[in-house]
Design goal:
The complex is a heterodimer of chains A (about 290) and B (about 130).
Chain A lengths: L2 H15 L8 H14 L5 H9 L3 H11 L11 H17 L5 E6 L6 H12 L8 E8 L2 H9 L1 E3 L9 H7 E4 L2 E4 L1 H4 L2 E5 L12 E6 L8 H13 L1 E9 L12 E3 L6 E4 L10 H8 L2
Parallel strand pairs in A: 1-2, 1-7, 2-6, 7-8
Antiparallel strand pairs in A: 3-5, 4-5, 8-10, 9-10
Chain B lengths: L2 E5 L3 H13 L3 E5 L2 H10 L4 E4 L8 H10 L7 E6 L4 H9 L4 E4 L4 H10 L12
Parallel strand pairs in B: 1-2, 1-3, 3-4, 4-5
Helix pairs in contact in B: 2-3
Classes of the chains: A alpha/beta (about 290), B alpha/beta (about 130).
Chain lengths: ~290, ~130
Amino acid sequence: MTPPDFEYLRKLFKDHSGLDLSADKQYLIESRLLPLARKCGLAGIPDLVAKIRSGSSQHIVQAVEAMTTNETFFFRDKVPFDHFRDTIMPELLKARAARRAVRIWCAAGSTGQEPYSLAMYLKEMSAALVGWRVEIIATDLSQEVLEKSKAGIYSQFEVQRGLPIQMLVKYFKQSGEFWQINPELRAMVQHRQLNLLHDFSQLGSFDVVFCRNVLIYFDQDTKINVFNRLARLMDTDGFLVLGAAETVVGLTDTFKPVADRRGLYRPSGLRAAGAVTPRLAALAAGH
Amino acid sequence: MKTCLVVDDSGVVRKIARRILEGMGFTVIEAEDGAVALEACKRAMPEAVLLDWNMPVMDGFEFLVQLRRLPGGDQPKVVFCTTENGIDHISRALHAGANEYIMKPFDKDIVIAKFQEVGLIALDAPTEA
């Protein structure tokens, strides 16, 4: 890949998905885009870059999707799901007792492992949730990934990463080499395509937001902007769950960490001024 | 150091499992069928058993049933590791007291995930590559 091509792609990915690639990430672009080039019937990356440079929106969209990491597994990191079961839901059962409704957003829902892990835990506590309306909204940048999530079909490898065997037996149906999550659990999750760089206020308000391992690819200003817009969708007794390597500390005052609960944050009640930043507003308007 | 008994009639599988488990910090002992494994358990109970299903002399299921009847035989965490990947086999194994179940083919990530699941290793356990 020529240096101008690399620079061009870096800027393209930054503008379209917030992905902030450092100069040493050329290998990552090559490893993700070569399979895509082949899939598109092109000889290699130079031909793909030519298509992208010519403004082919189909190739641009596919390239952006190919670059966003979708590595995920059931109950990934375990701790956030323990927080969900042992801290978040018990508190919301009290705080929302009058309304009897909880809305959960998986902001990087990917291929469904995270929203379905939450759905399984909700099933396990269904006795306490009789008469409650619990919504899980899973969004992702990639339509291809969302389709996989909707289908809820996983390979033997995928169901063995983090999913306890008892849950596999209980909530999945075997079909040859594949396992499909039960219709009842699939019905608990709604899917929407969404770019976090764009306005997401139309999703409504949320009590719980899982936003794990997606902001790490964004630059600092973009992170702050997303946090501030998330805070506007949440009441102060809501919960934000971030990935193990992520924090709001030093970035924004709109969320504060929950003591002794790694990765768990609550809105502080402070609202950052302004709507979306001009740069992001311009970007969003362009789509 | 925790001990894991690897029970499989394939020497190749035992070798692969040994490499993965030693990388996870386990002392590994091997047995080529359920009967040999049961004798090993009578001598000294391991903390973990990685257990194939189909083997000559005594299969994995029969071994598990016998193990759970031994004094202290309720202690080892038993993780099946087998090509028997049907839901009927999985249910039978769990009913007989298996703690986890790996469907072959397996890799290091799956073994780590399953061993974490049953509490044999910590969630953030460092492993050699």
